[in-house]
Amino acid sequence: MEKLPPFTPTSIDDIPQIHKHGVDKFHSHTTRSIDYRRKQLRALYWGLKDEEPALLEACKLDLGKSAYETYLTELGWVLNDIIFMSKNLARFAKDEKAEDISLTNSFMKPRIKKDPLGAVLIIGAYNFPLQLSLGPLIGAIAAGCTAVLKPSENAPNAARIMQHVISHNLDPEAYQVVQGAVPETTALLDCKWDKIFYTGNASVGKIISKKAAETLTPVALELGGRNPAIITKNAEPRLAARRLLWAKLMNVGQVCVSQNYILVDKEILPEFLRQLELALTEFQPKGAEGNEDYGKIATERQWQRLKGMLDSTTGKILMGGKTVKESLFFEPTVVQVETPDDPLLKDESFGPLIPILPVDDIEEAIRIANRVHATPLGLYPFGTKTETDKILSQTRSGGASVNDAFFHASIPTLAFGGVGDSGQGSYRGKASFDCFTHRRSVTTTPSWIESMLDVRYPPYTPEKMKKLRKMTDLKPDFDRQGRRTGRLVWWVLGLGGSGKASVGARWALLVAVAAVVVRFLRA
Ligand SMILES: NC(=O)c1ccc[n+]([C@@H]2O[C@H](COP(=O)([O-])OP(=O)(O)OC[C@H]3O[C@@H](n4cnc5c(N)ncnc54)[C@H](O)[C@@H]3O)[C@@H](O)[C@H]2O)c1
Ligand SMILES: CC1=C(/C=C/C(C)=C/C=C/C(C)=C/C=C/C=C(C)/C=C/C=C(C)/C=C/C=C(\C)C=O)C(C)(C)CCC1
User: Fold this and answer.
1) According to the lineage, what is the superkingdom (predicted)?
2) How far is the CA of 304 from the centre of ligand 1 (A)?
């Protein structure tokens, strides 16, 4: 890895020129060709493959991530994403026939063209430095955009290897990397982009949003959340304990979708805590410290923040609690808290803190979850179907996994994003293509239709108005009281059936029976 260049911030003076390159390249129209996009995606695949050992080592250095976890959640994930995108690109990019078009308008062949948005800026976060930077980049390339990637400076080794891969394998005019922190990102935000894709905390999300609003630039914001897990009295305690613990051991809990706190029905609390302890010894038989699979907190600043949270809780530490500043070690720490106002619930820990708040029942859990954060990124209800359905129907969140911790976010082709203040816009799978694509509505008016379109031209006459109404007015299927009307007619025409399949089958049967009867009568 020594042979690869070190992390070097980009000169701020160069940033306007880098931006211009991207814009000019987009206007050369080269990136629009499907063949070009596919070639870039495939080149990225092989570039990443070639640097697999360096990328695994980089994540180990930056986050103490085991090669297993880096492959599972980052490198293998991104490689598969490229293959998926390359295979499906032509299908995603194809014009779509417009839906819900009346017969009259169908002569104008309304369709949806998939246009690239243009030159885009992607700002990555440190916790999954490969996936959160390259995932959106794959979407941008697939959509036909040019892109500048600004990886997180808090995972500098991953950032420099990605820069090496991109600059040596992709079209350097179209895909560029800017390295740096706040000053470099601020200079990037001073340029006019066609979309900004940002992953990170909500405070910076607001800075990005405000800056983008000045030039009406669209943004995708992938932010954080205080995600609740809710365990009802009928949940399976062993399953819940193992699955939720997994979500806090991965990347040392530095996962945007991991649960921030757990609300547990008092009836099941003792057994849940017993299972949590059991799971902890099963997953880490020799403890967390010195465990090769358990990483570290990325930076001293983040470690201090987490330590501050732990020190400020009024709850009782039930498991863990050990921290070592020198190695940025933070033990998985279970804390039983007494109130939803505890700092461990009020703030996003983004680390291996596992606060547990006992609740009386499902209603109290829902009330607290909605109060702590009304629109988190994820929500994890454990219980019977009736219970989990009730929780889902009375809460909101970007995504949810029933009877699991962030399973929804570990499916690479499932659209992923927040809601409300946990984010806007989504990506992954086809959604990554759509995220950087403008769905351009296009019609083509044939010359022969001119005489029929005369109603649109002045002078406007009563005759034209009559014709216009005849051509365009829809008939209401509701009366002044808001009740459905005309149901009897449709019931008769549909032979008592509802839905295309059922009505079709009934008419087919009727015609067949009629044919047999006619034959019989003729014989
Ligand atoms: N929804 C998601 O997909 C997702 C994924 C990862 C992290 N997150 C959230 O992100 C947070 C943790 O990440 P972080 O923000 O600490 O990561 P970070 O420190 O890596 O910062 C993210 C990016 O913002 C840039 N940045 C920082 N300050 C800036 C400023 N003042 N102006 C412009 N850019 C600036 C950084 O350079 C970096 O590229 C958590 O809240 C987590 O939940 C969300
Ligand atoms: C194959 C058979 C079956 C099914 C097997 C199944 C369902 C296996 C599932 C394996 C799992 C759950 C693997 C877990 C993977 C986790 C991943 C990829 C996590 C990713 C995390 C990410 C991307 C985090 C993102 C974080 C973000 C965005 C913010 O910080 C059977 C059993 C059904 C039948 C036999 C065959």
Assistant:
1) Eukaryota
2) 17
